[in-house]
Amino acid sequence: MRLAFRIAARELRGGLRGFRVFLLCLILGVAAIAAVGLVREAIRSGLADQGAVLLGGDAQYEFTYRRATEAERDWITDHAAAVSEVIDFRSMAGTPAGDYALTQVKAVDAAYPLVGALQLDPPMPVSALDEGAPGVFLDPALADRLEVKPGDPVLIGGQEFVMKARIVREPDTSGGGFTMGPRSIVSLRAIEATPMLAPGSLYESEYRVLLPPGETLPGLQAAARQQFEGAGMRWSDSRRAAPGAERFTNRLASFLVLVGLAGLAVGGVGISSTTSAWIERKAGTIATLRALGATAGTIRSAFLIQVAVLGLGGIAAGIALASLGVLLAAGPITRLMPIPIEVGLAWRPLAEAAVYGALTAAVFALWPLSRMETLRAATLYRASDRRGRRLPRWPALALIGGLAAALVGFAALLSGMPGLTVAVLGGVAGALLVLALAALGLRWLAGRVRPLARGRPALHAALAAISGPRSEVVAVVLSLGLGLSVLAAIGQIESNLRNAISGDLPKQAPAFFIIDIQPDQLQPLLAQVEAVPGVSRIDTAPMLRGVVTQINGRPAREVGGDHWVLRGDRGVTFADAPRERLTEGEWWPRDYSGPPLVSMGAKEAAELGLKLGDQITVNILGRDITATISSFREVNFSTAGIGFVLTLNPAALAGAPYTEIATVYAPPEAEATILRETARAFPNVTAIRVSDAIARLTEALTGIARAVAVAASVTLLTGLVVLIGTAASGEAARAREAALLRTLGATRGMVLWSFALRSLLMGAAAGAIAVALGALSAWAALRFVMEMGYSFAPAPALAVVCGGVAVTVLAGAAFALRPLALRPARVLRAPE
C-alpha cells in the first residue's frame, strides 16, 4: 500500500485535468440532496420547537360538532393551569351590498391565545373583538375580496360584525390543516346562541390547555383517554402539534431526495465515463508499471486512492455549496414557510448527502477500475486493442452489487417510505438500462442504415460516427435521457391534471356544495335555488360526522393503520335506499328497525381488509354506534358529487341532530345569483364553490410540481455536465476525423454539418426515449397513485424532444469549431 500511495500522490500532482466532469457531477448531486435535507431539518426543528405555539397550548381536547358538557369542561379545567376554548367552522362572509365569499371562522374566548401572539394590522389586543359592536379580524385576502377596511360592517352567518383589523399572522394556524377559505376571527361570546352553533351544525370545538405544575403530557393523555372514553374526544399535544404538516413535509422532502438520487445516478454515468477516459489516457503509464513488475492490485489500489481523494473533495465541495446556498437563501425560505423556522446547518442531512455521494461514486467508479486487471501490458501498449474489454471479475462484481444494495437500503431506511424508495430507485435503474439498450440499438441501427446514405457524405459520416467503436451515443443518451425523462413525466402529469380540472370536472361536477342546511330549511332552499335560471340538478342527503373508533372490537388504528378513513372524522349519512350500485351484500328493508347496519364503500373496505358481517364502531356526537356491515357500494369521489363511505340505516341514527347537504349543478353564469340569494335568505348555511376548492387544490399541486421540477432541473443540469464532458473528451477524435475528411476533399461546411447531424440524431433519440419513459412513469403515477385516467399530451413531449436536440447540437457545435480550425497536416502528423 505504501507504493500505491506513492504512485497516487505523484499522479495527483498533475492536477484535475480530465476530472472536472467527475467533480461537477458529484458536487451537483450531493449539493441538491444536502440542500433539501437542510430545509427539511429546519422545518422539523421548527415544528418541534414551536409545538405549543402551533397547537395553541401544551395539549388540546377536540370534539366534533359539539361543545364539551359542563362536567367535561369542569374536568378539563381541574387538570389544567389555563384553558382556552376555540370553535372552528366554515361560513359565508359578506357585505351589506351583497358580495359574499367563503371563510373559515375561528371563534375565540378571552384567554386566546394561551401561547404565542396574534399579530394584527393595526395592532390591538384580542379583547378588542368585544369592545363596542361585535368585531371581526379578517385575513387580508378576504378583506381585499370583500373590499372592506377597519370600521366597515361585515356579515358572517347572517350576524353583523365590524371589521377591526387585518390578520398578519396567527400563532396556531398551521395545526388546523387545509382550509377552504381565508380566515375570520370573531369572539366566541358573539356567536353563542346563534344558528351557527345550532344542533347538527358542522363545527369543531377545541379546548387548549397549559399543563399544571407537576403534570406531564403522557400522564395527562392517559387520564384524559380514560375519562373521555367513548365520548368522541380527540387528543393532540405539542409533541406533534401539526402531524399533517409534518407528514407532508417528510414525504415531499423524501421524494425530492429521491429525485436528487436520480441526479446522482446521471452523475454516476459521468463519473464512470470520466474514470474510463482517465484510464484510457493513463494506459501507457499502467502498461509501464505492469512491465516493471507492479501487481494489478498495487495499480488498482493507486487508482482507487486517487478516485477516493477526488471523491472526498467533490463531496466536501457539494456540502459546502449546499450550505452556502441554503444560508444565503435563508431569508426567502423563512418567508415562504407558514411557521417560524431557523434555517441553519445541521450535521445529519449533510452526513446523509455525503453517504449518498460516496456510495454513488464508488459504485460507478469501481466498474471501469475493476476492469483494469483484465488487461495485459502488451494490450495496453496497442491502443487499437484496448476496446476488447471484458466484464470485471466476480469479486469486483460482488463488491459493486453490495455497494448498490447498501445505497438502496440506506435510502429506504432514511426516507421512511421503503416501498416508494425501492420503486423509484428501481425505476431509475430500469430507466438507465432501457436508455443504455436504446443507445446500443441506435448504434446498431446506424450501422445498418449507413450503406443507404452513400452519396450523402455528411449523413454517411454522421452514421459512421454513431455506429463506430468509439461512438459517444451511449454516453449522450444516458446523460440526457434520465433528466429529460423526469421532466417529461412532470409535463405529462401536469398536463393531465390541468385537463382533468379544466375539461372533465366541469362536465360532471356540481357548481356548489351547500352545507349546514337545517332540516326545516331544505324545501324552501330547494325551491329558491331551482328558480334560478340554468340550474339543472340538485342532490341532497342528510349528513352527520363521526369518528371510526373500533373495528371488530379492536381499536381502529390497530386494524387499519393510518388509512384516511380512520384519520379524523368522516361524513356519515342514513338512507332507506342505496344511492350507488351495490357490489356485494344486500340493503336493509325500508322499515328496518333492528340492530344497526352499515353499508360501506367497497374500495375503502377492501383497503381495510373488511368483509360482510364485520362490525365497525362510529362515534357520533359522543355516542358510540356499533354497526354490522351488510353491503358494499361503488362510491366514486372523482365526480365531486355527494359520496359517503359510511351509510347507516335510518333507525340507527334516530333522534340524532343532523343537517342536510346539497349539491347544485348549474352553469358558471348562474353561480353569482345562487351564492347571493342563498346567503341573503339562509345566512346560517354555507355555500362552497367547487371551482374555488379546485383552484386551491390546483395551487397546492402546482407548488409541489414546481418543487419537483426544480429538483429535476438538477438532474438535467448534471446530464448537461456529462454531455459537455463527453463532447470535450471527444474533441481530439473529432479533430482527427475532420482532418481525414478534409484531406479527402470535404469542405469545412460539410464536416460541420456532419457533426451537427450526429448530434441531432443522438439528441432526438435521447428525447424520444425520454418521452416514452416519462409517459410510462406519468401513466403509472396517475393510474396507481392518483387513480385517474391518462391521455398522452403532445405539447410537453415535443418540448422535451426539441430540448434534447437543441442541447446536444449546441454542445456538439461548441466542441467542433476548434477541431475544424486546425490544419489537417498538423493533426495527422501524430506521434504514433
From TrEMBL:
Domain MacB-like periplasmic core: 23-226
UniProt keyword Endoplasmic reticulum present: no
A GO cellular component entry from the record: plasma membrane
Main localization of the protein described in the UniProt heading: membrane
Domain ABC3 transporter permease C-terminal: 259-372, 710-819
Family matches, as Pfam families: FtsX, MacB_PCD
UniProt keyword annotation of Coiled coil present: no
Entry's localization field: Cell membrane
Alphabetized UniProt keyword annotations: Cell membrane, Membrane, Transmembrane, Transmembrane helix
Membrane topology: Multi-pass membrane protein
InterPro entries in alphabetical order: ABC3_permease_C (IPR003838), MacB_PCD (IPR025857), Membrane_comp_ABC_pdt (IPR038766)
Transmembrane segments: 21-39, 252-272, 307-333, 353-370, 391-414, 420-446, 707-729, 750-776, 796-817
UniProt protein name: FtsX-like permease family protein
